[in-house]
Amino acid sequence: MTLLSKTSRTKKRSSDEQWLFRALGISIFALFVIITASLRVVTLSARYGIVPLEIPVVQSQVPDPRFHQFQEFSKDSLTNNTTAVVVTTEAFYFGDLGAFSTEFSASSDKYTVPHKDGVPQLRRLIQELDVWVKSRSKSANIPLTPVLVMIPSGDIPMPILIQVVAELRSSSIFKRVILSSGMS
Fold first, then answer.
1. Any idea what the Cα angle at residue 112 is, between residues 155 and 51, rounded to 5°?
2. What is the distance between the alpha carbons of residues 144 and 141, in angstroms, rounded to a whole number?
3. What residues contact residue 174 under an 8 Å CB cut-off, 6+ apart?
4. What are residue 116's phi and psi, to 5 degrees?
5. Distant-in-sequence, close-in-space partners of 154: CB < 8 Å, separation ≥ 6
6. Paired strand residues for 111
7. Cβ count near 174 (within 10 Å)
8. Chunked in runs of 10, what are the mean pLDDT values of the chain (184 residues)?
9. Which phi and psi angles does 35 have, rounded to 5°?
10. Rounded to an integer, what distance in angstroms lies between the CA atom of residue 142 and that of residue 109?
11. What is the pTM of this model?
């Protein structure tokens, strides 16, 4: 009888399907991860997918060979007083376009909004830009223009730039964001 009970116990142990439940649990979890990732891709908003940007070009008169009476005109022009935002990995820097070109060595005409733990502070940037643009318009009699020149450094990822442009355009301050280069 002892041999028979040992054989019976061995059969019970070998037929115990504890691995089946573990494998089933792992496969259900893996299936859940795959379905969740697929649903996330499908439901992503297209808000940051396409963001219209403009690249500055030199204005020139194009002849009209068919005589359609077509004339080009500029909507806005870039001057030294146009607002510029420089995007780096450490902070946002903003000021006049002249502050980042002809008067680059002066530090009194540039303002900083540092990133907090590596995360860009877009709301704070927009608030400070709003205050700065309005106070500059009142004190220095500089007209408000809906144009902003954004100068990203070379190591900023494209999704971050797209998000910054979308937030700046959605604010009531700027309607046009012009992408520039030159920072390395």
1. 50
2. 9
3. 83, 146, 147, 148, 168
4. -105, 110
5. 183, 184
6. 94
7. 23
8. 62 62 88 90 65 61 68 71 88 85 73 87 90 87 84 84 86 84 57
9. -65, -40
10. 15
11. 0.60
Residue by residue, DSSP assigns the chain as -HHHHHHHHHHHHHH--HHHHHHHHHHHHHHHHHHHHHHHHHH--GGGT----B------PPP-TT--------S----TTSEEEEE-SSEEEEEEGGGGTTTTT--TTEEEEE-BTTB--HHHHHHHHHHHHHHHHHHH-PPP-SEEEEEE-TT--HHHHHHHHHHHHHSSS-SEEEE-----
Q: What are the structure tokens assigned to 149, written together?
A: 């020149």
Residue 133, Cα to own-chain centre: how many angstroms?
22
Dihedral of CA atoms 158, 163, 168, 169 in degrees, nearest 10, equals 90
